[in-house]
Amino acid sequence: MCIFCKIVEGVIPNKTILENDEFLAFEDINPQANVHVIVIPKVHVESFAEVSSDTMKNMTPFIQEVTEKLSLETQGYRLITNIGKDGGQEVPHLHFHILGGQSLRGL
Ligand code: 5GP
Ligand code: ZN
């Protein structure tokens, strides 16, 4: 089972920001900005390259809800997903990084 599947199962604890039946948003363990949140589907999908359009259809408004909850809407934020080896993906379970809470210009 991958690390993020273990987080979904509750085997590894997490600091949850928002959750529904399909998705989970939690704080990154090694934050790269004042706000650094990871959003994942609860089902194991390896990366953006494999995700279905059905999952993305629901994931988009969920991510927007997370950014609203984090009050990032006015100042903005960065949304990133790394894919595979060259993309620098370390955890092989689709995840979006939400980074913000500060200016990310130059980062
Ligand atoms: P990637 O490099 O795969 O795009 O990003 C993986 C992210 O997951 C990294 O930012 C890393 O800090 C985070 N991460 C890895 N293991 C854990 C964990 O056990 N808990 C939490 N909350 N974040 C993790
Ligand atoms: Zn997984």
Plain-language structure description:
It is a single chain. With 107 residues, this protein is α+β, with helices and mostly antiparallel strands. It contains 3 helices and 5 strands. The chain has helices at residues 3-9, 53-69, 84-87; strands spanning 16-19, 23-27, 35-41, 77-80, 96-100. Strands 1-2-3-5-4 form a 5-stranded antiparallel sheet, covered by helices on one side. Strand 1 and strand 2 form a beta hairpin. The longest helix has 17 residues, at 53-69. The chain starts with a helix and ends in a 7-residue tail after the last strand. The model has no long low-confidence stretch (mean pLDDT 98). The protein binds guanosine-5'-monophosphate (5GP) and zinc ion. Guanosine-5'-monophosphate is lined by residues 3, 12, 14, 26-30, 38, 82, 88-91.
